[in-house]
Every structure is written in C-alpha cells, then in structure tokens.
Known about the structure:
Blueprint: H1 3-12, H2 20-33, E1 37-41, H3 47-54, E2 59-64, H4 67-79, E3 86-90, H5 93-99, E4 104-109, H6 116-126, E5 127-136, H7 152-171, E6 176-178, E7 184-188
Parallel strand pairs: 1-2, 1-4, 2-3, 4-5
Antiparallel strand pairs: 5-7, 6-7
Amino acid sequence: MELSVLRQYAEENYIPILQKPTEKILIDVLKKEQPKSVLEIGTALGYSGSIILNNSSAHLTTIEINKERFDFAKNTFYEQNLNKRVTQILGDANEVLTTLPGPFDFIFLDGPKGQYLKELPYIYNLLTPNGTLFADNIYYHGWVKGDAYPTHKHRTAILRLREFIAKCKELFPNATFLDDGDGIMIAKKTEYKK
C-alpha cells in the first residue's frame, strides 16, 4: 500500500499516525543523523516505520501491542519490500523494553502518551552515547502546555507528560521542543545519567 493511501486509510479509520509537519521534521533529522539502528515504540499501521526506513539505511525494531495493527504493519512493510530491515515485536512496550537488547542510535517514541514517563529510563539506557530520541505528541492536543486543569479522562496522561518533559530536560540538557504537529522533542544523549 502506498503511503498516501495508507494515510487516507488511517484518517478514515481514526487511527493516529504521523502528522505531516512531524513527518517532514522526522525525515530531516533522519537524513542528518543517518542512524543504523532504530527503535520505534508504537508501530500502528507501519506508516512512520516506513518513513524511517525510506529515509535511512537503518534496521528498524518496532513494538506494537495491538495484534491487528501488528499484522497490518507486517503487510505494509512486506508490500514496500522493507520487511528484511524490520524486526517487529508484538507486546507491551513496558514489558518488552525491560529485556530488549540494545543499543539503538535513534529511538522514535510514539506509543501511548501516558506511558512515556514510565518507559523513559529504559529508553535512556537503550540509547547509544550521542544517540537521538525523537518523541512525538508530547503536548497532547496542546493540553500539556496549557494552564487549564485537564478533564478527568485525560488528566493522568497530561500530568505524566508534564513529568516526562521535566525529566527529559534533566536527562537531555540539549533537548529541543517544537510546537509542530502535536509537539515534538528531539534530544541527543550526551552524557551518562541515571
């Protein structure tokens, strides 16, 4: 399936995928960094994974908890002849990250937003020195940056994302925060911190 068709399918079926402004920035960062090993948290339909593979020579390891989406992405990678450069893992990233062998020189974080904070220590340890973390949707519909107290339904995710951002500022003093898409953080691991 061509990526334009895949994007249309995602929009029609309310499946969140990479927003266009974020996609452009991701491509620019990939071309600059030239990663060899990429970890993606949140495969969905394989859209962002395809963007990563089409704009680098990297091998992609990608984690997805939803079996239906895992299978859909498998087909996406196969149809684009990218499957030989992908290791797909079906499972909960919170569990997979605890045993996943690394390291990775680029990590694309785009799974459940409320889990970013919990996953951060594992992500940090899996990242090579000078490796890049690219976290998507960190502003969660703009609510994370706002002063309004979040509704009960979204409160936990928003509060955890605020903690995630604060912790990233501590771990990655050079982190860049962008308003594009739904908020992006790009950070390089420059020194070892626990």
